[in-house]
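lol ok so funny story. i was supposed to be doing the assay writeup but got distracted and ended up predicting the structure for this chain instead. priorities right. anyway since i did it might as well share w the group, maybe its usefull for someone
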Amino acid sequence: MSLAGINLTARALVAGVDEAGRGPLAGSVVAAAVILDPARPIDGLNDSKKLTEKARDRLAPLIRERALAWAVAEASVLEIDTLNIHHATLLAMRRAVEMLAVLPDAIEVDGLHCPKVSMQATAIVKGDSKVAAIAAASILAKTVRDAQMQALHARYPMYGLNQHKGYPTPAHLAALREHGVVREIYRSSYAPVRLLLDEAGL
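and the output, tada:
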């Protein structure tokens, strides 16, 4: 499958931007920005949700090795609860763009909204399935966030974060009811978590 970007000019540098972790109850939201190198193509790029974990883990180091520039940033649980997930996601995206070692001429962002940045920004619905650089960013964001969930699982194995990655599955919600909410890692602004905290009088 071949994905392409929207070129401003033949020499313009365009960074693809995407996030992972809007829906989960736990952990930070992670964003990545990637400027691909046309001279070093990467076969198999696609929306990270359409790839197997094995494929993502194979592609992520290739993206880091072959891209002209890449960066991964996040917004914390506290920032999500303070700002809301929409604004926290845009914050993580802006941080990723600003961390790039090479300044792009423009960015292309998956979805409907763009972070406030100094360069031209274009939102592309389903961009992670249409634009190679956005697909690459989605893979980096997803693999970094999954690694964070694995690390949290090592600290809090009772929640099963390595399996559901923080999403509100029945097993996850049952574990939360049984073991309670660890405020450090859970988003108290999310309804299922807020309900449990209210029930506990917290």
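The chain has a mean pLDDT of 94. The longest helix spans residues 132-155.
back to the writeup now i swear
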